[in-house]
Amino acid sequence: MTTQQIPVVVLAGFLGAGKTTLLNHLLRSARGTRIGVMVNDFGDIGIDAMTVAGQVGSTVSLGNGCLCCAVDASELDEYLEVLTRPESRLDVIVIEASGLAEPQELVRMVLASENERIVYGGLVEVVDAAEFGATRQRHPGTDRHLAVADLVVVNKADRVSADELRSVRETVAGLAGRAAVIEASHGRVDPELLFDRVVPDGEIEGQMSIEDVLYGSDDAAEHAHASYETVSLTASTPLHPRRLMAFLDSRPEGLYRIKGFIDLGAADPANRYAVHAVGRFLRFYPEPWPAGEERLTQLVLIGSGIDAAGLRKELAACELSGPRDVPDEAGMWGLLRYVPQTEEESEETLF
Fold first, then answer.
1. 3-state SS string for 75-130
2. The 271-278 sheet, strands edge to edge
């Protein structure tokens, strides 16, 4: 990709679900990752250094490389333009949906943005495991919100019994369709489930940081990793574009993110295709093969309850099987639909 795009994650959930707690956890766990936060009010962002009252139009530096701004939904694109300026050097932007607009409307606004420096990073819906039944009664929109989510965090899992948690999760999964569903306590989710964390110079990837010690409980790191899996897939034989798209279109429930590079062989010998998928959203970015680099398909798949062996088998079925297995001229059409165009793009990039 000529320009590294910044993922924009929409964080939603009704009052009391714990989305602000989750947001604060992400900020405390940022380490070397520069996060831009867009909220309707600074008041609930409990960062020690922040003593300023929230006010639309204000922007505050959090002192850990992150930025926070209070916005009105109608000015969303304007603030995306501010936060994506090169001098901000942000790695990810999180929009808290509460008080701004319906989550689905925010997603539409992100997808409709003409800002070429951003890419959709998913709709994360937070629900309160202990109050889920009551929340559905008070807020009829709960089911609708879950239906369009890419990832659902069943928060406050420590406040209910194992049987009740299982029941809530089953109900949520039924309402959320193909969205990944994970459990959490105190909003602790591994940031790498939502975005690629930047490892600061001098830090060993995976080691505990001072933030982990200060803010996390003894089992926080273990709990954060327990709810999802990461599967790495590699293929040394080029993939057939039609079968690749069939693989992506039929991906299993619980598969949240896909990232990596695709080798399409003779279908496009000059380029490899960087792939970015989150929830139902998909993008391919053709780019020249680096000189001297081995031509491989390398993918990382992230989700909850995913079948690693099954996914490896499905990817292997996408490989070209021999000289007669040659994509026809129209074989690339389905894939090219998800390559960004210069014209305005919209929700049709959801699949």
1. HHHHHHHHHCCHHHCCCEEEEECCCCCCHHHHHHHHHHCCCCCEEEEEEEEEEECC
2. 229-235, 297-303, 255-262, 271-278, 281-288
130-173: per-residue pLDDT in tens? 999 999 999 888 999 999 999 999 999 999 999 999 999 999 99
What is the torsion angle, in degrees rounded to the nearest 10, for the CA atoms of residue 217, residue 218, residue 220 and residue 226? -160
pLDDT digits (tens, 9 = 90+) for 38-86: 876 555 554 433 433 334 455 666 655 677 776 776 778 888 888 898 9
Q: Could you report how far apart the first and last alpha carbons of the chain are, in Å?
A: 22
- CA 114/CA 95 separation, integer angstroms: 17
Q: Which two tokens stand for residue 114?
A: 């003409």
Rg, C-alpha atoms of the chain: 21
Residue type, position 139, single letter:
H
Per the structure block, which two tokens stand in for 256? 């949240």
Q: Write 101-107 long-range contacts (CB < 8 A, 24+).
A: 101/73, 102/141, 102/145, 103/10, 103/12, 103/145, 103/148, 103/149, 104/144, 104/145, 104/148, 105/73, 106/10, 106/12, 106/73, 106/76, 107/10, 107/148
Q: Are 10 and 76 in contact (CB under 8 A)?
A: no
Q: What is the strand order of the sheet 151-155 is part of? A: 59-61, 67-70, 35-39, 92-96, 6-12, 118-128, 151-155, 180-183
